[in-house]
Protein backbone atom coordinates (compact mmCIF):
# COMPACT_ATOMS: atom_id res chain seq x y z
CA UNK A 1 0.00 0.00 0.00
CA UNK A 2 1.53 3.33 -1.01
CA UNK A 3 1.95 6.06 1.61
CA UNK A 4 2.65 9.77 1.27
CA UNK A 5 5.28 11.11 3.63
CA UNK A 6 6.40 14.64 4.49
CA UNK A 7 9.83 15.21 6.07
CA UNK A 8 10.47 18.44 7.97
CA UNK A 9 14.07 18.99 6.94
CA UNK A 10 16.92 20.80 8.68
CA UNK A 11 20.02 22.24 7.07
CA UNK A 12 23.04 24.42 7.71
CA UNK A 13 25.46 26.23 5.42
CA UNK A 14 27.08 22.92 4.43
CA UNK A 15 23.84 21.33 3.27
CA UNK A 16 21.09 19.06 4.56
CA UNK A 17 21.72 17.65 8.02
CA UNK A 18 22.79 14.02 8.13
CA UNK A 19 19.60 13.08 10.01
CA UNK A 20 17.40 14.75 7.37
CA UNK A 21 19.16 12.64 4.73
CA UNK A 22 18.47 9.57 6.89
CA UNK A 23 14.79 10.49 7.27
CA UNK A 24 14.40 10.92 3.51
CA UNK A 25 15.97 7.53 2.86
CA UNK A 26 13.73 5.96 5.49
CA UNK A 27 10.66 7.75 4.10
CA UNK A 28 11.51 6.52 0.66
CA UNK A 29 11.34 2.87 1.72
CA UNK A 30 8.29 3.38 4.00
CA UNK A 31 6.32 5.07 1.21
CA UNK A 32 6.31 1.91 -0.98
CA UNK A 33 6.24 4.08 -4.07
CA UNK A 34 4.08 6.89 -2.64
CA UNK A 35 5.28 10.48 -2.55
CA UNK A 36 8.12 11.72 -0.36
CA UNK A 37 8.09 15.48 0.14
CA UNK A 38 10.35 17.68 2.19
CA UNK A 39 9.77 21.11 3.67
CA UNK A 40 12.79 23.39 4.14
CA UNK A 41 12.37 26.74 5.82
CA UNK A 42 14.64 29.78 5.78
CA UNK A 43 17.14 31.58 3.59
CA UNK A 44 19.04 29.22 1.31
CA UNK A 45 16.38 26.51 1.43
CA UNK A 46 15.82 26.53 -2.31
CA UNK A 47 19.47 25.77 -3.03
CA UNK A 48 19.59 23.04 -0.34
CA UNK A 49 16.41 21.45 -1.70
CA UNK A 50 18.33 20.09 -4.67
CA UNK A 51 20.29 17.56 -2.62
CA UNK A 52 17.08 16.21 -1.03
CA UNK A 53 16.15 14.57 -4.35
CA UNK A 54 19.18 12.29 -4.28
CA UNK A 55 17.97 10.88 -0.92
CA UNK A 56 14.49 10.10 -2.21
CA UNK A 57 12.42 13.31 -2.04
CA UNK A 58 10.25 13.83 -5.09
CA UNK A 59 9.03 17.28 -4.16
CA UNK A 60 10.57 20.03 -2.02
CA UNK A 61 8.53 22.85 -0.51
CA UNK A 62 10.68 25.81 0.42
CA UNK A 63 10.14 29.16 2.07
CA UNK A 64 13.41 30.76 1.04
CA UNK A 65 12.98 33.75 3.25
CA UNK A 66 15.23 35.16 5.98
CA UNK A 67 12.24 35.61 8.29
CA UNK A 68 11.98 31.79 8.54
CA UNK A 69 15.71 31.19 9.15
CA UNK A 70 15.40 31.39 12.92
CA UNK A 71 13.46 28.45 14.36
CA UNK A 72 10.35 30.05 15.84
CA UNK A 73 8.12 27.10 16.71
CA UNK A 74 4.70 28.75 16.33
CA UNK A 75 5.70 30.28 12.99
CA UNK A 76 7.22 27.06 11.65
CA UNK A 77 4.09 25.17 12.75
CA UNK A 78 1.96 27.50 10.60
CA UNK A 79 4.26 26.88 7.62
CA UNK A 80 4.32 23.08 7.97
CA UNK A 81 0.56 23.05 8.52
CA UNK A 82 0.15 25.03 5.29
CA UNK A 83 2.22 22.44 3.41
CA UNK A 84 0.32 19.61 5.10
CA UNK A 85 -2.90 21.06 3.63
CA UNK A 86 -1.34 20.98 0.15
CA UNK A 87 0.18 17.52 0.38
CA UNK A 88 -2.05 15.66 2.92
CA UNK A 89 0.69 13.18 3.87
CA UNK A 90 -0.05 10.04 5.90
CA UNK A 91 3.09 10.55 7.97
CA UNK A 92 5.14 13.59 9.01
CA UNK A 93 8.72 12.85 10.06
CA UNK A 94 10.89 15.23 12.07
CA UNK A 95 14.32 14.94 13.59
CA UNK A 96 14.55 14.31 17.34
CA UNK A 97 16.30 17.66 17.60
CA UNK A 98 15.58 21.02 19.21
CA UNK A 99 13.31 21.71 16.24
CA UNK A 100 11.53 18.34 16.26
CA UNK A 101 11.07 18.19 20.02
CA UNK A 102 9.13 21.45 19.93
CA UNK A 103 7.48 21.27 16.53
CA UNK A 104 6.32 17.62 16.62
CA UNK A 105 3.80 18.02 19.47
CA UNK A 106 2.63 21.40 18.14
CA UNK A 107 1.89 19.90 14.74
CA UNK A 108 0.11 16.88 16.16
CA UNK A 109 -2.07 19.21 18.25
CA UNK A 110 -2.80 21.48 15.28
CA UNK A 111 -3.70 18.49 13.10
CA UNK A 112 -5.78 16.87 15.83
CA UNK A 113 -3.54 13.83 15.61
CA UNK A 114 -0.85 12.10 17.67
CA UNK A 115 2.93 12.27 17.90
CA UNK A 116 5.44 9.59 18.86
CA UNK A 117 8.60 11.22 20.16
CA UNK A 118 12.20 10.00 20.13
CA UNK A 119 11.51 7.03 17.84
CA UNK A 120 14.23 4.56 16.96
CA UNK A 121 12.25 2.85 14.24
CA UNK A 122 9.14 3.37 12.13
CA UNK A 123 7.40 0.57 10.29
CA UNK A 124 4.63 0.67 7.76
CA UNK A 125 1.88 -1.89 7.22
CA UNK A 126 -1.61 -1.98 5.72
CA UNK A 127 -3.08 -0.55 8.92
CA UNK A 128 -0.74 2.47 8.91
CA UNK A 129 2.46 3.10 10.81
CA UNK A 130 4.08 1.69 13.93
CA UNK A 131 6.56 3.72 15.94
CA UNK A 132 9.06 2.20 18.36
CA UNK A 133 10.64 4.30 21.07
CA UNK A 134 12.60 3.68 24.28
CA UNK A 135 10.65 3.81 27.53
CA UNK A 136 11.38 3.35 31.26
CA UNK A 137 14.50 5.53 30.98
CA UNK A 138 15.84 3.54 28.05
CA UNK A 139 15.51 0.13 29.76
CA UNK A 140 12.75 -1.11 27.42
CA UNK A 141 11.19 -0.31 24.07
CA UNK A 142 7.52 0.23 23.31
CA UNK A 143 5.87 -0.01 19.91
CA UNK A 144 2.84 2.16 19.26
CA UNK A 145 0.34 2.23 16.43
CA UNK A 146 -1.56 5.38 15.51
CA UNK A 147 -5.32 5.63 15.69
CA UNK A 148 -5.24 9.14 14.18
CA UNK A 149 -3.92 10.55 10.94
CA UNK A 150 -1.53 11.96 9.92
CA UNK A 151 0.96 10.09 12.06
CA UNK A 152 3.64 12.43 13.40
CA UNK A 153 7.00 11.11 14.61
CA UNK A 154 10.29 12.56 15.75
CA UNK A 155 13.13 10.17 14.99
CA UNK A 156 16.57 9.78 16.55
CA UNK A 157 19.70 10.25 14.47
CA UNK A 158 21.03 7.01 12.93
CA UNK A 159 17.68 5.22 13.08
CA UNK A 160 17.80 4.96 9.29
CA UNK A 161 20.86 4.80 7.08
CA UNK A 162 21.27 7.69 4.64
CA UNK A 163 21.60 6.34 1.11
CA UNK A 164 21.48 8.15 -2.19
CA UNK A 165 18.80 6.76 -4.49
CA UNK A 166 20.35 7.52 -7.87
CA UNK A 167 17.88 10.30 -8.64
CA UNK A 168 18.87 13.95 -8.93
CA UNK A 169 15.60 15.50 -10.05
CA UNK A 170 12.44 16.64 -8.37
CA UNK A 171 10.05 19.53 -8.15
CA UNK A 172 10.87 22.59 -6.03
CA UNK A 173 7.79 24.53 -4.92
CA UNK A 174 8.57 27.95 -3.46
CA UNK A 175 5.86 29.06 -1.02
CA UNK A 176 5.06 32.66 -0.17
CA UNK A 177 3.74 32.78 3.33
CA UNK A 178 3.51 35.50 5.91
CA UNK A 179 3.27 34.28 9.49
CA UNK A 180 3.81 36.02 12.79
CA UNK A 181 5.39 34.60 15.89
CA UNK A 182 4.79 35.34 19.54
CA UNK A 183 8.42 34.39 20.16
CA UNK A 184 11.40 36.63 19.60
CA UNK A 185 14.99 35.52 20.02
CA UNK A 186 16.92 38.08 22.05
CA UNK A 187 20.34 36.48 22.05
CA UNK A 188 22.09 33.42 20.71
CA UNK A 189 25.21 31.82 22.15
CA UNK A 190 26.88 29.26 19.97
CA UNK A 191 29.03 26.63 21.66
CA UNK A 192 32.20 26.26 19.62
CA UNK A 193 32.77 22.60 18.84
CA UNK A 194 35.69 21.15 16.99
CA UNK A 195 35.70 18.05 14.85
CA UNK A 196 33.06 15.38 14.73
CA UNK A 197 29.67 16.09 16.30
CA UNK A 198 28.82 13.76 19.16
CA UNK A 199 25.48 12.86 17.61
CA UNK A 200 27.02 12.09 14.20
CA UNK A 201 29.95 10.00 15.43
CA UNK A 202 29.90 6.28 14.59
CA UNK A 203 31.88 5.66 17.81
CA UNK A 204 31.21 7.44 21.11
CA UNK A 205 33.71 7.09 23.96
CA UNK A 206 32.02 8.24 27.13
CA UNK A 207 33.72 9.00 30.43
CA UNK A 208 32.11 8.99 33.87
CA UNK A 209 32.79 10.03 37.45
CA UNK A 210 34.86 6.88 37.95
CA UNK A 211 37.63 8.53 35.91
CA UNK A 212 38.50 10.34 39.12
CA UNK A 213 39.30 13.68 37.54
CA UNK A 214 39.46 15.64 34.28
CA UNK A 215 42.81 14.00 33.39
CA UNK A 216 40.89 10.77 32.78
CA UNK A 217 39.41 12.45 29.70
CA UNK A 218 42.96 13.01 28.36
CA UNK A 219 43.35 9.25 28.27
CA UNK A 220 40.00 8.92 26.48
CA UNK A 221 41.15 11.59 24.02
CA UNK A 222 44.26 9.49 23.36
CA UNK A 223 42.01 6.50 22.64
CA UNK A 224 39.91 8.66 20.27
CA UNK A 225 43.10 9.79 18.50
CA UNK A 226 44.26 6.24 17.78
CA UNK A 227 40.79 5.19 16.59
CA UNK A 228 40.59 8.35 14.45
CA UNK A 229 38.89 11.62 15.33
CA UNK A 230 36.85 11.30 12.13
CA UNK A 231 35.19 8.23 13.73
CA UNK A 232 35.30 8.68 17.49
CA UNK A 233 33.84 11.52 19.58
CA UNK A 234 33.90 11.93 23.35
CA UNK A 235 30.88 12.12 25.62
CA UNK A 236 30.50 12.44 29.35
CA UNK A 237 28.10 11.39 32.08
CA UNK A 238 26.26 14.15 33.89
CA UNK A 239 28.20 13.49 37.09
CA UNK A 240 31.48 14.18 35.26
CA UNK A 241 30.02 17.30 33.60
CA UNK A 242 28.65 18.58 36.90
CA UNK A 243 32.14 18.27 38.36
CA UNK A 244 33.43 20.45 35.50
CA UNK A 245 35.59 17.69 34.05
CA UNK A 246 34.08 17.87 30.57
CA UNK A 247 31.84 20.37 28.71
CA UNK A 248 28.11 20.09 29.37
CA UNK A 249 27.53 20.22 25.59
CA UNK A 250 28.94 16.66 25.50
CA UNK A 251 26.71 15.24 28.23
CA UNK A 252 24.93 12.05 27.20
CA UNK A 253 21.58 11.15 28.74
CA UNK A 254 18.08 12.18 29.59
CA UNK A 255 19.07 15.79 30.15
CA UNK A 256 21.91 15.71 27.62
CA UNK A 257 22.43 14.44 24.10
CA UNK A 258 20.88 11.29 22.72
CA UNK A 259 23.45 9.33 20.75
CA UNK A 260 22.85 6.33 18.55
CA UNK A 261 26.33 5.30 17.37
CA UNK A 262 27.47 1.98 15.93
CA UNK A 263 29.63 1.59 19.03
CA UNK A 264 29.33 3.23 22.44
CA UNK A 265 32.07 2.67 25.02
CA UNK A 266 31.17 3.57 28.61
CA UNK A 267 34.37 4.12 30.57
CA UNK A 268 33.91 4.29 34.34
CA UNK A 269 30.24 5.15 33.86
CA UNK A 270 27.81 3.31 36.14
CA UNK A 271 24.99 3.18 33.57
CA UNK A 272 22.24 4.90 35.58
CA UNK A 273 18.88 4.83 33.80
CA UNK A 274 19.06 8.59 33.11
CA UNK A 275 22.39 8.04 31.37
CA UNK A 276 21.19 4.98 29.43
CA UNK A 277 18.26 7.05 28.12
CA UNK A 278 20.84 8.81 25.98
CA UNK A 279 22.78 5.83 24.66
CA UNK A 280 20.61 2.71 24.82
CA UNK A 281 19.89 2.99 21.08
CA UNK A 282 23.59 2.35 20.30
CA UNK A 283 24.10 -0.66 18.03
CA UNK A 284 26.74 -2.10 20.38
CA UNK A 285 27.83 -1.12 23.86
CA UNK A 286 31.14 -1.91 25.56
CA UNK A 287 31.33 -1.27 29.30
CA UNK A 288 34.62 -0.76 31.11
CA UNK A 289 34.06 -0.69 34.84
CA UNK A 290 35.83 -2.04 37.91
CA UNK A 291 32.51 -3.00 39.50
CA UNK A 292 31.16 -6.22 37.91
CA UNK A 293 27.68 -5.30 39.23
CA UNK A 294 27.62 -1.93 37.42
CA UNK A 295 24.32 -1.38 35.61
CA UNK A 296 26.09 -0.59 32.33
CA UNK A 297 27.01 -4.28 31.96
CA UNK A 298 23.30 -5.17 31.63
CA UNK A 299 23.07 -3.26 28.35
CA UNK A 300 26.56 -4.08 27.12
CA UNK A 301 27.37 -6.57 24.39
CA UNK A 302 30.95 -6.77 25.69
CA UNK A 303 32.20 -5.91 29.15
CA UNK A 304 35.66 -5.43 30.61
CA UNK A 305 35.82 -5.61 34.39
CA UNK A 306 38.86 -3.67 35.52
CA UNK A 307 40.46 -0.35 36.31
CA UNK A 308 40.17 1.93 33.29
CA UNK A 309 43.73 3.16 33.99
CA UNK A 310 44.93 -0.31 32.98
CA UNK A 311 42.26 -1.19 30.40
CA UNK A 312 42.33 1.99 28.28
CA UNK A 313 46.15 2.10 27.79
CA UNK A 314 46.02 -1.61 26.86
CA UNK A 315 43.32 -0.83 24.28
CA UNK A 316 45.39 2.05 22.90
CA UNK A 317 48.43 -0.22 22.52
CA UNK A 318 46.35 -3.00 20.94
CA UNK A 319 44.86 -0.60 18.36
CA UNK A 320 48.28 0.94 17.64
CA UNK A 321 49.83 -2.45 16.98
CA UNK A 322 46.91 -3.82 14.95
C1 LIG B 1 16.37 14.11 36.46
C2 LIG B 1 17.74 13.52 36.26
C3 LIG B 1 18.32 13.64 35.02
C4 LIG B 1 19.60 13.09 34.82
N1 LIG B 1 20.16 13.19 33.58
C5 LIG B 1 21.36 12.58 33.37
C6 LIG B 1 21.94 12.60 32.09
O1 LIG B 1 21.44 13.21 31.13
N2 LIG B 1 23.12 11.96 31.92
C7 LIG B 1 23.75 11.29 32.94
O2 LIG B 1 24.83 10.72 32.72
N3 LIG B 1 23.20 11.28 34.17
C8 LIG B 1 22.04 11.91 34.42
N4 LIG B 1 21.54 11.91 35.67
C9 LIG B 1 22.38 11.43 36.78
C10 LIG B 1 22.39 9.90 36.92
O3 LIG B 1 21.32 9.50 37.74
C11 LIG B 1 23.71 9.43 37.54
O4 LIG B 1 23.88 10.05 38.77
C12 LIG B 1 24.93 9.68 36.70
O5 LIG B 1 24.74 9.20 35.38
C13 LIG B 1 26.13 9.00 37.33
O6 LIG B 1 27.27 9.27 36.57
P1 LIG B 1 28.48 8.25 36.54
O7 LIG B 1 28.01 6.92 36.13
O8 LIG B 1 29.57 8.89 35.78
O9 LIG B 1 28.96 8.28 38.07
P2 LIG B 1 28.85 7.19 39.22
O10 LIG B 1 27.45 6.79 39.46
O11 LIG B 1 29.61 7.73 40.36
O12 LIG B 1 29.58 5.90 38.63
C14 LIG B 1 30.97 5.82 38.43
C15 LIG B 1 31.29 4.42 37.94
O13 LIG B 1 32.67 4.34 37.70
C16 LIG B 1 33.15 3.08 38.18
N5 LIG B 1 34.57 3.27 38.49
C17 LIG B 1 35.11 3.97 39.52
N6 LIG B 1 36.45 3.95 39.42
C18 LIG B 1 36.76 3.22 38.32
C19 LIG B 1 37.98 2.87 37.68
N7 LIG B 1 39.18 3.28 38.16
N8 LIG B 1 37.93 2.11 36.55
C20 LIG B 1 36.74 1.69 36.04
N9 LIG B 1 35.56 1.99 36.62
C21 LIG B 1 35.57 2.77 37.73
C22 LIG B 1 32.30 2.79 39.39
O14 LIG B 1 32.27 1.37 39.65
C23 LIG B 1 30.95 3.33 38.95
O15 LIG B 1 30.16 2.32 38.29
C24 LIG B 1 20.28 12.45 35.90
C25 LIG B 1 19.66 12.35 37.14
C26 LIG B 1 18.41 12.88 37.33
C27 LIG B 1 17.76 12.75 38.68
Structural description of this entry:
The chain is elongated, with a radius of gyration of 21 Å. The protein has a 7-stranded parallel β-sheet with strand order 7-11-6-1-4-5-12, with helices on both faces. Helix 2 links the parallel strand 4 and strand 5. The chain folds into 2 domains: 170 residues, HUPs (Rossmann fold, 3-Layer(aba) Sandwich); 118 residues, Rossmann fold (3-Layer(aba) Sandwich), CATH 3.40.50. With 322 residues, the chain is an alpha/beta fold. The structure holds flavin-adenine dinucleotide. Flavin-adenine dinucleotide binds next to helix 6, helix 7, strand 16 and helix 9.
Whole-number total of structural domains: 2
CATH topology descriptor of the largest domain: Rossmann fold
Count helical runs: 9
The succession of helices and strands, N to C, reads EEEHEHEHEHEEEEEEEHEHEHEHEH
Terminal Cα separation, in Å?
A: 49 Å
Number of strands: 17
Helix content percent band: 25-40%
The major pleated sheet works out as:
7 strands, parallel
Superfamily at the CATH H level of the largest domain?
HUPs
Shape: elongated
Beta fraction: 25-35%
User: Which structural class do the helices and strands define?
Assistant: alpha/beta
Strand order, largest beta sheet: 7-11-6-1-4-5-12
Task: Tell me the Rg in angstroms.
Answer: 21 Å
User: What's the CATH C level of the largest domain?
Assistant: Alpha Beta
Short recap of the structure:
This protein has nine helices and 17 strands. It has 322 residues and is of the alpha/beta class.
Amino acid sequence: MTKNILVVGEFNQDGLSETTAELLTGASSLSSGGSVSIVLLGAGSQEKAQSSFSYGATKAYTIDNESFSEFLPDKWAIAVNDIYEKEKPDLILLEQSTVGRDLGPRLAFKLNSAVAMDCVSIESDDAGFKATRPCFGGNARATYSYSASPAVATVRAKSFEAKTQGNENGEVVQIDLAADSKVSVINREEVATEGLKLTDAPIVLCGGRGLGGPEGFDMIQELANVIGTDKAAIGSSRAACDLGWYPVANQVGLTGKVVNPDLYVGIAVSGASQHMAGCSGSKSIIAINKDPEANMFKSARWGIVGDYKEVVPALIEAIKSS
